């Protein structure tokens, strides 16, 4: 079975094993996920890894006041490998050992604003490509007279596969950047409209006060005698 990525409930942050019925991702070496982190909450995920593999994790805060979040990455032994305090994005790569790696997004410092967070996992050297290569090598015997050996074909296919995966990764990141920029622009638009209405209201009130004061200066306040 391929690598899995599971969400742990808030009350079980200290556990590395998934709870019964937890949601799981499809077995893919590249996974991305977007979720909403409520104010005052902390959410953790875990990823099983193999020895001498590579785990690359990139995250971005797409929406929410301040566009910041705390990020923790822990090893299977519970050691803190990465700690980002109130950052809007980050990219981290670690060489792994056998076990479950846990990473958490912490929004407990915010009491009002929820955050929309995007993250992507890229897993390398998980063993599946090596198995495919071994399967291909079964058919290499007797191909020495060919101009292009099956090893060359396999190398070309792997190169195309790597470039396609990189293209998909870049497009996913560009969509995340676009979503964050759009949220910032919409927030700025709402702020401009709000303060424009406030300024308009102040101008109307000031104009009314000025007209009233000017009229009062020219009123004849003397009372006629009878």
Can you put this structure into words, describing what you see?
With 226 residues, the protein is an alpha+beta fold. It folds into two domains: 26-128, Jelly Rolls (Sandwich), CATH 2.60.120.680; 153-219. Helices cover 35% and strands 30% of the residues. The protein contains two helices and nine strands. The protein has helices at 128-137, 150-218, and strands at 6-8, 30-37, 42-49, 54-63, 69-74, 80-87, 89-95, 99-106, 115-124. The strands form two sheets. It has a five-stranded antiparallel β-sheet, with no helix packed on it. Strands 2-9-4-7 form a four-stranded antiparallel β-sheet, with helices on one face. Strand 5 (69-74) and strand 6 form a beta hairpin. The longest helix has 69 residues, at 150-218. It is elongated, with a radius of gyration of 30 Å. It starts with 5 loop residues before the first strand and ends in an 8-residue tail after the last helix. One of its GO terms (cellular component) is endoplasmic reticulum membrane. It comes from Chaetorhynchus papuensis. It is found in: Endoplasmic reticulum membrane; Endoplasmic reticulum-Golgi intermediate compartment membrane; Golgi apparatus, cis-Golgi network membrane; Membrane. InterPro entries: Emp24-like, GOLD_dom, GOLD_dom_sf. Keywords: Endoplasmic reticulum, Membrane, Signal, Transmembrane, Transmembrane helix.
